[in-house]
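Task: fold both queries, return tokens.
Query 1:
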Amino acid sequence: MTRVLALCLAVLLTAAAPAAAQTSQEMAALAPKVMTLAKFAEGIALLEDLEDSPQYLVMQRLRERDPSLLDGFENYYLEVDVRGGHGTVLVCKSGATAVLFEDVGCKTAIERDVRTQPTPGWCTYVLNTKAVCGR
């Protein structure tokens, strides 16, 4: 009986490993796209002289100018906004249950990445764009 349970556990763990690797690969593929979206939103903030914008405005501009930038985010909750005069991106698990990335377009690295900074909690912005960007 113990052997059977151990074998079942080993099979389950082995079967789950590729799924975890897939998720890790997906996250690695999404990270540069998140930064590109943040830079795009930062550009919209500058071009349209926006302090804050409703989400639909930046998403509308994305769809008009380069809808391919949204490729790969189909299975995630995605917000692309202008907050405090800066482009911001928030990516969460489907259903908006947990944050995966939060980025501000004024920097060259992602500010919040669950791979390096586990962040429990709801899918919500926590970064202060003015503090992050210094203006």
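Query 1 returned. Query 2:
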Amino acid sequence: MYDYPLLKYAVTTKISSSEITLSYRGKTYNYPVENPASYKKLLEKCNGRNLLKDSIQHCNIKKEPAKEFLHKLSEIPLILDGKTVLRDDGLLSGKELFWKLEKFLIEWKQKKIMTAFQIDFDKEIALGKAPENVVKGFCLELCHLLRNVPDELSLAVANAKNDYVRSHYMTFYDEERTHGEIIFRALKKWINAEDIMHASPLPATIGLLNTYRYWASKDSLFYAVALMRDESSALDAEIKKDEDIFLGMKTHYQVPKQVYKVYEWHTNLDRNNNHGFFPELIFAEYEYIDAFYAKRLISALKQIIELHQQFRWGVYHYYSEHPVETRFEPYKALNFQ
């Protein structure tokens, strides 16, 4: 067990008469203990600065059960090594900022923007309430985003702060570069390939595309913040059935099997490869981040989350009223030879 344990900032705790419950990224962990209030107090002292043995003494808990409890949390992990995350001089490290941003990420992603009709995008598709054209439009717009990833990562590699950051982005590029093309090939089973390539993305999609490219070309950490929002982790809770878009596609719509299977594969791949914590590698290369820069990164995280919520709102709003084919009309209006 770490000498200076740090409970992740995104972890929340509550107690009952016989157990302590920790919540993290939508999952809950229950632990029966003799004195839940004392264990909650112990976790409050796990700030990465307090020496473990002193914290245990102050909480009046037996040493071995306390260490065993914290060890279980570190294996998940809900506990980090404070000595490797925090700076001795009290200044803000890249690692510390990453874990602070994660707390905002989880909080803000739960605050979904609803449409004027009080429609929850994911549930509408999962429960089969959305028009099929919305599902088709969503697949098209998502394809635009995923096909853009190799370009974004190329920019991130070319403009990396140093060779260490560049190496991380190159590794991630190797893992991600073919996914957009795989999605494109699958979507061709539902939409003509030429139509996909020349379709005009919706305004919110353009906003995301331009934001990703700009951040990737200008600032390694800003792009890492965007990836924090996009990538999932094995520590994330399972998607609820009434919010599972791909289950909804399979159950309620005439979506070609290859389409929903490949889109679902891509989502699960990120989760299984723990891509949600890839940005931590980038943040770890920054030994110090000043307060002004940190505030800009916090703002960037909120921006990218809200942009994605507007993306979903835009898809539902537009494709509820217009067929997907209207996105192809501009290039089909002229008879190219």
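Both queries returned. Flag for query 2: The chain has a mean pLDDT of 93.
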